[in-house]
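Any chance you could type out some protein's one-letter sequence along with its backbone structure tokens so I can compare the two?
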Amino acid sequence: MSEEVNVLILGSGPAGYTAAIYAARAGLNPVMYQGGQPGGQLTITNDVENYPGYPEGVMGPEMMVDFQKQAERFGTDNRHGLATAVDFSSYPLKVTIDEKHEILAKSVIISTGASAKWLGIPSETRLNGRGVSACAVCDGFFFRGQEVAVVGGGDTAAEEATYLAKLCKKVYLLVRRDEMRASNIMQQRVLNTPNLEILWNTETDEILGEEEVEGVRVYNNKTGEKYEIPVGGFFVAIGHEPNTEIFANYLDMDENGYIKTVPGSTLTNVEGVFASGDAQDHIYRQAVTAAGTGCMAALDAERFLSAKELETV
């Protein structure tokens, strides 16, 4: 038996919760499914210092609890569950949750975010959770006083490395080029951290250890030289990919899987489907911009539903 809803929100990061706040205050009775990572990427982020309204900064998980409480205060039906299939070929829009529960939605707001990328080497999978991690804030505590390695050259890698440097004896930052992609302020933080060493033109050959990480074998991609670094933890921080695969048959996307929206809006190529947050933003990818697009998506959905009602009068 199908359930009918006015506004179905998929995902629960800053974009999803902001959309829920606006939709709920508009009396649209939104139903939100939190997805595979309730709260989104901010639940694995340490200090958030650049979100307006938190002058002293805030922990990412704490901020997401605040967002959730605000959304629920206005009547958002917040549920655990993951969208596993969609059918946008007819209206109302069909979405299957956890492979069993079908929802007929008058509008859908996609805020499924993005997930961490991995290197794709066998030892990374084998030792995942036993010294290999994609979240320094989640797992850094277990490596206090040890030496660890971080791979990546962007803001994510810089943030992970500087965070770990507060806990660990030594941090090696493995950068595959001779420069970093990180913003200037993040690069300065890396360079000014005394127990953080950058290894330029360096790539991972293998993570060493049988039951847990004992080191990493790397190579210089200019000289071909291979050598081993004894570390107890290996953190992958090479970026993210959007969680949009289930929409691929219906929505226009770019070559990396980010959903395309009409400029200046959250409208997709399917009527009644709106995309917000990191599922459609590969440029800014900030909590505040995600929240902004969540607001836009709710307003776009409200206008769409109002126009639909006028059509049936």
Summary: The first helix runs from residue 14 to 25. The domain at 3-115+240-312 is CATH 3.50.50.60 (FAD/NAD(P)-binding domain). The chain has a mean pLDDT of 94.
